[in-house]
Amino acid sequence: MKTILLTFRKLKKSKTATLLGIAGLVTGLVCVLYIFFWVNDETRYDRFHKNIDRIFVVHAYLEGGTKTVNFNGCPPAVSPALKAEYPEVESTCRYIPAYSKFLITAEGKKNVLNTAFSDNSLFDIFTLPFIYGNQGDPNVKNQIVLTKTASAGIFGDMNPVGKMVRFNNSQDLVVAGVIDDIPHNSTIQFDAVLPLENLGVLYGQTNNNYLNTWYNNSFTTFGLLSSPSGFEKIATSITRRIQKDIPESTNYLRAYLFKNGYLYEQKHISNVRIFSLIALLVLFAATLNFINLITAKSTKQAKETGLRKSIGATRGNIIKLIYSDVAILCLLAFVLAFFVAIVGLPLFNQMIGKQIEYSALFSPKPIAIMVLAYLVTTFLAGSYPAFFLSSFKITETLTSNFHSVKSRGIFRNSLLVTIFMVSIILLTSTIVISKQTLFLQKMDIGFNKDQLIYVNLDGKLQEKAKSLKEEIGRSAGVSSSTITDFLPVFVGNNGEGWGWEGKDANFKPLVTTCSTDEDMIKTLEAKLIEGNYFSNDRQGIVINKAFADVIGWKNFVGKTLNAYGQTHQVVGVINNIEYNSLAESCRPMVIGQINEQSARYLIIKANSNQMDKTIKSISKICEDIEPDFPVSYGFVDQEYAKLYASETNLKQLVGVFSGFTIIVLCLGLLGVVMFMAEQKTKEIGVRKCLGEQETSIIMRLVRPLLLSGIGASAIAIPATWYAMNRWLENFANKTTLSWWIFVMAVLIVLGIALLTVSWQSWKAATRNPVEALRYE
Amino acid sequence: MIHLNNIDKYYDSKFQRTFVLKAVNLEVKEGEFVSIMGPSGSGKSTLLNIIGLLDAPSAGEYSLYDKSVLDLKEKAKVDYHRNFMGFIFQAYHLIEEMTVYENIETPLIYKGVKSRDRQAMVADLLDRFNMVAKKDLFPQQLSGGQQQLVGIARAIIGKPKLLLADEPTGNLQSVQGEMIMETLQQLNNEGMTIIQVTHNEKFAEYGKRIIRLEDGIIRKDVASKIVFSI
Ligand SMILES: Nc1ncnc2c1ncn2[C@@H]1O[C@H](COP(=O)(O)OP(=O)(O)OP(=O)(O)O)[C@@H](O)[C@H]1O
Ligand SMILES: [Mg+2]
């Protein structure tokens, strides 16, 4: 009790220094807490499944092209084969993620839900607890499982089990059960899930043969092991399983543990590592800063220590006193940081696009880590002054002109260098990541994504696509439109069956196929490199530049390619349209003429600024043709933004965290300079009496700062250069690491530092020398 | 009580050895009141610090009650500080964040005196120095003389046998200085052994014996002229 009281009295006495130290520590801690939440959230991805250690994923990859291509899924026949052939496998499941939204009509309401398709065993393997009903009978096809929110949107609070819903306006399904909402950090995400057999109806197939093939890699395949140790056997023996049934296939299989999927397969672990390192650096800088500021009054403290010793305090007493002092201040900082973190959580979530909940704060792990961090910080922050202060001889401290300046020089400099270093590293990284994101946004993607509206051709819109197109073409604000089976942000349909004259038989590149009508070039503003686009009187296919490069001919027009037993005449070559992930280089693509059954989208180029009006008239036309489906439309540029969402996210994160570090930096600098100025008051006074100019006195204070800044840059720049180079290697399309990025970051950090320092130095320099000399 | 035999204190710099104290022999008996005088830099504080076990001599013998106190362990030294001697400093050296009461109480806490006993002892002293009304004030709120009274109170609360005072009146006006001197004299009359360093001839006369130091050598060691009646 007594110590707490004393600590607070001390705090009141040396307000500025202590408050700066605490503020820096709080800022650093909030930053660390947020990084911790983020890391915690990332590492807990999918971990809510009780069977997490026993679930594995099988996916296919293709070799034989220019490079290995990985698929998310594998052929549908793999799943039953796994279960039959491996006694270690308890259960398997095929799953088609909720790529698209489907219309679910019930109770007179139309609902558009993200719909997944899956085997019934999904609920045996994963922890998706039921609120109402159950997973239903595996042999019943016409059933549906909804999430809590989806169910509430249709049926309100009531139990909907046994009720009928109409799916895609074509099929009646019984609600088998309602599961709790799926946590946001889950790979499996859907509003509704239907038995896999319903896929056939959707794509116009009448039998279930498509579920038994050894090709078509669109089926995400999960397996549940009876014990985790069974994984090794599967991983090592599964590779050539497809070849047992189709010897000529170039698709191979690979298994990985589901728990590693998000972090390792999707490489999120590298960000986790980077941010953990940042957290440590920030905490280190904030702690150093804190130590510096609480020992700013060390002359006084050393005297007090000497005095206490002279009246009978042992070294132990003194060390205990210093530690408890620091412990109390740290506790204050931690409690404050916790409070700030709670208050700021919604804002943080908004900035980084996560949904971290308050419960994340109050679970045992973060609290344990906070307690650990507290102990470590207290230990670190206490050890230096404890060691430093108790090391003085009593007689030294008690003489009236005792100053503990010299021994602190190295410490203060390393503090400065560390803070500068962390700031420069973070700031450069932010700039590089921003530059890369901007680069991706500005990159030539082969078409103009602005003012492109797409309409999903649901229900009757598909068969009446042509008349819809004509109708929309006549309305104001539309300059052209094209019917397609793809959006330029995602093309999933591909195969390795393409051949041409002179091709090596073993060379089997993966080629994406899609189809459009003749107006694609006009609508998307894509560019032809050679020949023409196809039209009614010019039948044939168009290939992209990536494919042209793979084939390697000089001219393509008039030549033929063959695929799956058919011959196709090339009429033109277009510039690459960047589809799928921007991180990868563009893949070969063939565009054919669309037929009615494959029409999926109408992409419309709007030419007016009155987007609202255009959309209204488009909606009206759609509703007139197909009143049963709600009009579902979207904007291509928004869809496109999702392609670089993870980079945008990373930019936000690094931005937020470098903001924190720079605050810590400023507080630290302010403290250091205040301290230096105070120590040098007398010296400055004397120098002024001797006629030294104010500017030169300011330089005297600023110079060590500049030197540490330059020293820090010498470490920070190569480190960041190396790290960012490695990060950029993940991208096929990447920006350059220009020298100005580093210069700019260093200038910004030094600029902020100088600004912070200037007023303090100015204050010290312009002080009346008489006053300064009297100051004791 | 105190026996210094051939005490040297020197500092070695690159090429030379500077003596601060040279062959100092000193015997102080229980109940004495000794004033040490001498010009600035003559080694007065050094001598006092050696006696107070705050500093160690470079050579010579030092015993308290015929027991050598050189090369004492840290723990034994602390024990002497807690139970045997008290210090008064020129710059008072009060702990700023502590009230008068708490400042006086601190040595008792280190000594491990029970809370209730502490209260009684501090109350006694406050009463004696007429400081009861000031007990909750902080040092900055007191005059120099009052601060030094608190310093004395803190030095004697543990009932030390030996009181060491380095220029206890150095920062004070003469009226306040006299008050301090009278307090010391009274303590001496009650049996406490006191060694003080002072620059003030008049204040030196409060002691029963005056030692004059010059360049680290004891030049004079005489009984003071004025002998106060008891
Ligand atoms: N650490 C040290 N290294 C070298 N010389 C020292 C050291 N400490 C003290 N001295 C020297 O010892 C001498 C005696 O110092 P001391 O403080 O004992 O003098 P003093 O008699 O108390 O003087 P004053 O009346 O000014 O207080 C001084 O000349 C001082 O320069
Ligand atoms: Mg002295």
How would you concisely characterize the structure shown here?
With 776 residues, chain A is an alpha+beta fold.
Task: Note down, in words, how this protein is organized.
The complex is a heterodimer of chains A (776) and B (230). Chain A folds into three domains: 2-42 and 270-440 and 645-773, no CATH class; 54-265, no CATH class; 452-641, no CATH class. Chain A has 27 helices and 24 strands. Chain A is an alpha+beta fold and 776 residues long. Helix content of chain A is 51%, strand content 17%. In chain A, a hairpin with a 3-residue loop joins β8 and β9. In chain A, strands 15, 16, 17, 18, 19, 20, 21 and 22 form an eight-stranded mixed beta sheet that branches. A six-stranded mixed beta barrel of chain A has the order 4-5-10-7-9-8. Chain B has one domain (33-39, 74-229): Rossmann fold, CATH 3.40.50.300. Chain B is built from seven helices and ten strands. Chain B has helices at residues 44-51, 74-83, 100-111, 115-128, 144-156, 174-189, 201-204, and strands spanning 2-12, 17-28, 33-37, 59-64, 67-68, 85-88, 162-166, 193-197, 209-214, 217-223. In chain B, the strands form two sheets. A six-stranded mixed beta sheet of chain B has the order 6-7-8-3-9-10, with helices on both faces. A four-stranded antiparallel beta sheet of chain B has the order 2-1-4-5, with helices on one face. In chain B, α6 links the parallel β7 and β8 (193-197). The longest helix of chain B has 16 residues, at 174-189. The mean pLDDT of chain B is 88. The A-B interface holds A 2, 6, 9-10, 13, 300, 303-304, 307-315, 317, 393-395, 398-400 and B 45, 49, 52, 54-55, 74-75, 78, 81-83, 86-87, 89-91, 93, 95-98, 102, 106-107, 110-111, 154-155, 158. Adenosine-5'-triphosphate binds next to β2 and α1 of chain B.
